[in-house]
Specification:
Helix content: 10-25%
CATH superfamily of the largest domain: P-loop containing nucleotide triphosphate hydrolases
Number of domains: 2
Strand content: 35-45%
Number of strands: 21
Structural class: alpha+beta
């Protein structure tokens, strides 16, 4: 458990942030300049805040009133930057072993063979960084940080410099890291797609202040969070299990709201998945539609209708125990008499769920 509360002033900007991060991946989301990196640097001990308190587990890393400031090398925190920052004159193996030098004496530490396998870098061990791709460098940097046996892993926009293909590759490894290790991770990003695939807890940062924090599923489906996330990114997160691969190339996923069919989804039957469903891809009907091409029709109940400044409206839906968002026009909301308690059907086109909106794990 991480408990953080801090204040720090710059010439034209003051950061005042407080949040609690439980086990799992906690994502700090906000636009450039919102204060995310300042928080991470304060956690790492690279910045001494003007005031506040930082507690990791049972250790106080910083307390301005008690005049406690633990130096960076004693904090047991791993840090993965936007650029890998590997030692160019060392091989991958030597870079990894350098990280292990900082592991606690007498501690079991992470098993190097397991981490190498987990990150898929076994074939790279004798290469030097100059012979690696951007994605390979980042995987090695992650391995080096993990092998230092940290109590917390900080990742400051580690995918920002990578292209789409490399990002997808690294996200898969990060999902494995989240699901197969007990290492808590604080992940900084301004990409909603990354956050919804990885995070278990979401902290929204805006202009140096925490706007909202909590379980990622709850915040993504909350209309109050949409201004911080962006209207085009408005959507919700559903968890499901891969139930079947049909002969016509579709896969069936069983969610709390019902069955969903999507173009072939990689993975074994029974695999846990998380789906990002954009609000703009959800249509609403007050009667079960007949004779339409959309395969996914889920019974739902309206929880809230939020009228926008323009012609649009945002509708929050209960689909079983899960939540969805739908973007419709105000005219449609009025014509369908949408309001709290109204029973409707949420219609989702199978092809509207992009591959990068499907992640592993719950």
């Amino acid at each position: 458990m991480l408990d953080l509360s801090l204040r720090h002033g710059f010439e034209d900007f003051t950061l005042e942030a407080a949040f609690t991060a439980p086990a799992g991946v906690t994502a700090l989301f906000g636009h450039s300049g919102s204060g995310k990196t300042t928080i991470v640097n304060a956690l790492a001990g690279l910045l001494r805040p003007d005031a506040g308190r930082i507690v990791l587990g049972d250790r106080v890393l910083f307390d301005s009133q008690a005049r406690v400031f633990m130096p960076p090398h004693k904090r047991r925190i791993g840090y993965v930057f936007q650029d890998a920052r590997l030692f160019p004159h060392l091989t991958v193996r030597q870079n990894l072993l350098y990280g292990r030098r900082f592991a606690a004496r007498g501690g079991a530490g992470a098993d190097m063979g397991r981490i190498v396998e987990l990150l898929g870098i076994g074939a790279l061990m004798e290469r030097r960084p100059g012979a690696l791709s951007g994605g390979e460098k980042q995987r090695v940097a992650m391995g080096r940080a993990i092998l230092s046996d940290p109590e917390l892993l900080l990742m400051d926009e580690p995918l920002a410099a990578l292209d789409g293909a490399r990002k997808g590759e690294i996200l898969t490894y990060l999902e494995r890291l989240r699901d197969e290790t007990a290492l808590p991770i604080l992940y900084v990003s301004h990409s909603v797609a990354e956050v919804t695939r990885l995070a278990t807890t979401l902290v929204l940062i805006e202009a140096g202040h925490v706007m909202r924090s909590g379980p990622v599923e709850a915040i993504m489906a909350d209309p109050d969070a949409v201004p911080a996330l962006g209207l085009r990114e408005a959507g919700a997160l559903l968890t499901a299990r891969l139930a079947a691969h049909d002969a016509d190339g579709l896969s069936r996923l069983d969610s709390e709201g019902g069955a969903l069919w999507l173009p072939h989804v990689e993975g074994p039957i029974g695999a846990a998945l998380r789906l990002r469903i954009l609000a703009q891809d959800v249509m609403l009907a007050v009667e079960r539609p007949q004779g339409i091409s959309a395969l996914n029709v889920l019974p739902a109940r309206v929880l809230e209708v939020r009228q926008g400044a323009g012609p649009g409206a945002l509708v929050q839906l209960a689909v079983g125990e899960a939540r969805l968002l739908a973007r419709v026009t105000g005219r449609s909301a009025k014509a369908l008499e949408l309001g709290p308690g109204r029973e409707v059907y949420a219609v989702i086109k199978a092809v509207s769920v992009a591959r990068d909106s499907i992640g592993e794990g719950r």
